[in-house]
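Milestone 3.1: sequence recovery, worked example.
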């Protein structure tokens, strides 16, 4: 039996090592930091002016360029082609090449997650005193610095505040809120933004061309949206797709790998939802899940689709800037005509809540189906504004529905809106405020002939809304029209306390609001004190207000006493003879004025 020849031990070493796309296309210059122009511009200006700080903090989401920017800054500080720091490192000298490869002796990259103990920070402090080997500066890049322990942060404080002149610190983190304020105050902070899907798409397209591959634009757009603002995530995903695609990269292949629905599928599902057809919508979801569709991905796509509907409904960005594909954008422009903005917002609330509930749930498909059924029924629900318009129509009919469980429900007898208003209006039993056909209060003109009736209705409305305030108003001795849309209310000098209470700015505004409701026009009110009238007389309209049976009952009706009796279990045994339920409470020492504001 023939023996197989042994494979030379150095064969594996002869095979070319593959470097992933995210590493091969890592930014090497500040100008290559895509989507972080604000950070690159600030660092370039600091290098040009010689105002480089001793400590920087780079914060932002994963894969947006924090560590890449730290390496570029390290190369710029130690580039050997110039005699001073430069904003454009050469990428050819020994220092630049070593930093790019991650093995420079003067640039130490430390993982905060695995070196988070105080002992590691103490070792770092001991190394700070040694000067750099060949560069100008010794640079410490601490990634995920928020993972350091509290004692490690405390050990780093003094060194971070006053490091030697040859030392620079660059800290990077995705969770800046976990870093102590004492550390933040010692660093210059730069916030890295999410990279827009358009910029990610352009970069991916450039990479595909440089790699010698072909890809549909729709496929690259799907990858860009899936990356959620992370350039590194998009490049890692592209690397996976290029390795698994035998030929041209298509949107169908991307959807199969990611478990997402294609453009036409999302449009069909949105059409069924907007048509209020839950049967068709559920059938679509069921068939897609059987073919490998990821439920979570479909929810993400629906959120993006309804967000596009919201943006178009509000007159938002151009179609090219919508968070959907061009085919979906055209469908959105047509479908937005059949749905209100309120329904779109309600749909987004349902979808985002469903997305949150799916985390950790084993019944994601059920949650999605429940959400889709709710979206289908949103068209059947009237908004508050639409409901009020229906009820305010003259002769509108409102069905009365019995809700008592276990009994035979009576037949639904339609009654008019006017009857409902009459039963529910506490003033309707007194025939004080008639209701018009459209549901508004009938108005009275501000004329001399109508003034007595208007004053009566005014006091009775005030009695219903502000009982204590109405008692003060009832002490007025007279009222008269003092000009166009102007009413003067006079109090006798004997009731100066009532005048003081009613003449406050807040209570004058309250009177004007009540009169506007009764007259349908703006009425200017003046509160006057008639010093010639010393004998107070209550007006005829005031006499119509229900008088208290006795002083005990009057006291029992006061809101303040009700609260006290409920809290303390108190009862009334005696009332002083000089007690006046209409008088305002005595002002405490230091009070400027008496106000009868209620509710």
């Amino acid at each position: 039996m023939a023996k197989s020849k042994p494979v030379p031990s150095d064969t594996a070493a002869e095979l070319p090592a593959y470097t992933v796309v995210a590493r091969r296309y890592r930014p090497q210059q500040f100008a290559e930091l895509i989507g972080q122009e604000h950070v690159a511009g600030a660092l370039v200006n600091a290098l040009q002016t010689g105002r480089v700080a001793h400590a920087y903090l780079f914060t932002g989401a994963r894969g947006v360029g924090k560590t890449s920017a730290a390496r570029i800054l390290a190369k710029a500080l130690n580039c050997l082609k110039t005699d001073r720091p430069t904003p454009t490192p050469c990428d050819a000298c020994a220092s630049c090449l070593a930093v790019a490869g991650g093995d420079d002796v003067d640039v130490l990259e430390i993982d905060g997650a695995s070196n988070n103990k105080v002992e590691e920070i103490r070792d770092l402090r001991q190394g700070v005193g040694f000067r750099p080997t060949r560069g100008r500066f010794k640079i410490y890049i601490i990634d995920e610095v928020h993972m350091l322990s509290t004692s490690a942060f405390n050990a780093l404080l003094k060194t971070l505040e006053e490091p030697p002149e040859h030392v620079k610190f660059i800290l990077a983190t995705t969770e800046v809120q976990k870093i102590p304020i004492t550390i933040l105050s010692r660093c210059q902070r730069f916030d890295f933004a999410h990279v827009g899907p358009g910029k990610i798409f352009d970069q991916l397209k450039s990479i595909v061309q440089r790699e010698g591959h072909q890809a549909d634009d729709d496929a690259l757009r799907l990858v860009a949206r899936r990356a959620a603002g992370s350039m590194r995530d998009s490049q890692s995903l592209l690397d996976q797709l290029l390795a698994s695609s035998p030929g041209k990269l298509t949107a169908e292949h991307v959807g199969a790998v990611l478990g997402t629905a294609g453009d036409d599928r999302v449009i069909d599902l949105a059409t069924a939802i907007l048509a209020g057809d839950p049967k068709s919508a559920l059938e679509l979801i069921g068939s897609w899940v059987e073919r490998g569709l990821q439920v979570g991905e479909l929810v993400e796509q629906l959120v993006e689709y309804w967000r596009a509907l919201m943006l178009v409904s509000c007159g938002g960005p151009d179609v090219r800037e919508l968070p959907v594909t061009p085919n979906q954008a055209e469908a959105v422009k047509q479908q937005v005509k059949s749905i209100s903005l309120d329904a779109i917002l309600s749909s987004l609330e349902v979808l985002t809540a469903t997305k949150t509930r799916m985390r950790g749930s084993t019944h994601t498909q059920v949650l999605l189906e429940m959400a889709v059924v709710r979206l289908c029924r949103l068209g059947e629900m009237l908004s508050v504004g639409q409901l009020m318009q229906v009820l305010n129509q003259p002769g509108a009919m409102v069905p009365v529905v019995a809700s008592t469980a276990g009994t035979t429900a009576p037949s639904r007898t339609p009654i008019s809106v006017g009857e409902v208003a009459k039963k529910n209006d506490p003033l309707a039993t007194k025939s004080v405020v008639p209701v018009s056909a459209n549901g508004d209060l009938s108005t009275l003109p501000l004329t001399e002939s109508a003034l007595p009736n208007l004053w009566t209705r005014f006091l009775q409305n005030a009695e219903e809304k502000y009982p204590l305030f109405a008692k003060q108003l009832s002490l007025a001795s007279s009222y008269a029209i003092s000009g166009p849309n102007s009413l003067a209310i006079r109090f006798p000098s004997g009731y100066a306390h009532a005048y003081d209470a009613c003449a406050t700015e807040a209570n004058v505004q309250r009177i004007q609001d009540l009169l506007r409701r009764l007259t349908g026009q703006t009425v200017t009110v003046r509160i006057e004190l008639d010093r010639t009238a010393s004998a107070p007389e209550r007006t005829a309209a005031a006499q119509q207000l229900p008088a208290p049976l006795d002083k005990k009952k009057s006291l029992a009706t006061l809101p303040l006493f009700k609260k006290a009796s409920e809290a303390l279990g108190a009862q009334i045994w005696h009332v002083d003879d000089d007690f006046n339920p209409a008088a305002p409470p005595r002002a405490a020492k230091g009070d400027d004025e008496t106000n009868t504001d209620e509710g």
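The CA atoms of residues 427 and 433 lie 6 Å apart. The chain has a mean pLDDT of 78.
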